[in-house]
Request: fold
Amino acid sequence: MGGYGSGRQWGKATTSGSYPLDVRHLQRAGLLTQGQCFSLNWSRNGEQVASIQARPEDDRVTLNYRHKTGGADWQAMDYPVRLEWTACTLGGRRAWFRCPANGCGRRVALLYLGGAGIFACRHCHRLAYACQRETVDDRAMRRADNIRERLGWPAGIANPNGGKPKGMHWRTFERLKAKHDSSVRVVLAGMTKWIDLTNRRLAGVHDALNRNA
Reply:
């Protein structure tokens, strides 16, 4: 199922740090109509950082853009991404991309622009979802923050807890509070472990400096 590109040469990163191309967005916006060319732009902090032009046909979308890696010259990119259509349960049909990277061809909804300048699926780019890079402490902090938001409490576990929101059943409130408190204990245990490890490292550096003095 070969395609454009040169395999899986890209480094590890997360999907949140890559430029996505979402076939679902294109279909909802009516941009997959054959013969209707369109442009897509990506911005960060209000500044445009990337753009492409695309030419859709019934079985493919041809991407056209320029890419630059490091100090190399700008390279013109122009290649097709195959489309596949599947029937929906309630009628109509849904579009999918076929990953254009060599040796792939996975049916996916999202492609990402990698360092080699090719749009490919997250498997080819070896991209992880941001939540997959979270530590146990990170996940516990996120759960606690989500519960605090649902309860209408001030954001951040360092802030005092609030009371039961108006209209919420007591059983629901007690269940959420128990989950919140359990997550906070995990976060605090992780912080204590990190502080102890940092102190041991600093003590080792201090001892080494004294020996060399």
About this structure: Residues 14 and 133 are 8 Å apart (CA to CA).
